[in-house]
Amino acid sequence: MDFDVLIVGAGSAGLSAALTLGRCRRRVLLADGGAPRNAPSPAVHGFLTRDGVQPAKLLALGREQLAPYPTVEVHELKITKLHKLAHGFRAEGTTDQGHAWAGTANRVLLATGVDDVLPALPGFRELWGTGVLHCPYCHGYEVRDQPLAVYGRGKAAVGLALLLTNWSQDIVVVTDGPGHLTDYGRQRLRQHHIGLRQEPVARLVGGPGGTLRCIEFTDGSYLERTAVFLHAPQEQRSALAADLGALITSKGAVWVDKNAQTSIPGLYAAGDTTPGQQQALIAAAEGSKAAICLNEALTKEQVMQHKRTAC
Ligand SMILES: Cc1cc2nc3c(=O)[nH]c(=O)nc-3n(C[C@H](O)[C@H](O)[C@H](O)COP(=O)(O)OP(=O)(O)OC[C@H]3O[C@@H](n4cnc5c(N)ncnc54)[C@H](O)[C@@H]3O)c2cc1C
């Protein structure tokens, strides 16, 4: 095998896993095929000791701190295919120079993240990460006490609006057509003085620095807001797990057991790609945990091999 572990994806989860495995003196290839999920955002909030750091700076620091570990290689390499071998994996990919690459690894860790699927309306993509926000824990403090909107329908929109009342008392739920709200949902919005607009939305109008100025409806009316929150549907950033036949949850995440292993022996996953809360610090912790599980599985394998040879 060329490597003990191939880590696919060098966001918070992948970098953190590489650090732990480098410290275990494992031969690691960390393959990165592009920008992290939060690339459009000006800052990473809530990351212990790095609150407010630029996303690219956080990852650059992570890469810098891998440099002292000689068994860790980092490459700009998009992994396009994984083949399960009798023992380990064969991977194929394309470098950032467009060259084909292939190699083998005893184990693979997927830290490939997710993509957010934004509404196909003008303004959402343009203001993503600045005026269009996904998470109050990441950005709520920055827009505290400001006029906010929640874009969405049904129970999920009511839940997000109620959650936001901790940051602002001026919230309007914008359902962009019939809101599919229950009587109970409407009652809860009223109780918390949360407004409701069900007219179809035409577009979001931006202000200076990527902020939101207003939400414009198709009837020509508009609602002035400084930010809109939404829980966008997500897609896996890579199909590698699904292509290998790994179990995917009903919510589209890559299933893992308590040792970060997917349903495919030897294939591990960490970070946003797996179920659970999605934050950079959580992804980093999951990457570190997966690395410990990987190192222990590899150690166990070595000990068994040694025992067999000795016999
Ligand atoms: C707009 C926005 C703002 C956010 N703000 C915050 C915040 O303030 N605080 C916070 O804690 N969290 C924030 N988050 C959440 C945070 O971005 C994620 O939780 C975190 O990035 C997850 O880390 P990850 O390593 O799992 O995935 P990612 O950071 O998305 O990294 C995955 C990496 O895998 C690479 N990759 C994918 N497929 C392949 C492949 N086939 N081959 C090679 N490489 C591949 C990708 O290019 C990427 O570099 C924000 C998210 C968004 C969308």
Automatic annotation (TrEMBL):
Domain FAD/NAD(P)-binding: 3-287
Keywords from the named record: Flavoprotein, Oxidoreductase
InterPro entries: FAD/NAD-bd_sf (IPR036188), FAD/NAD-binding_dom (IPR023753), Ferredoxin-NADP_redctase_2 (IPR050097)
Highest taxon, organism lineage: Bacteria
Protein name: FAD/NAD(P)-binding domain-containing protein
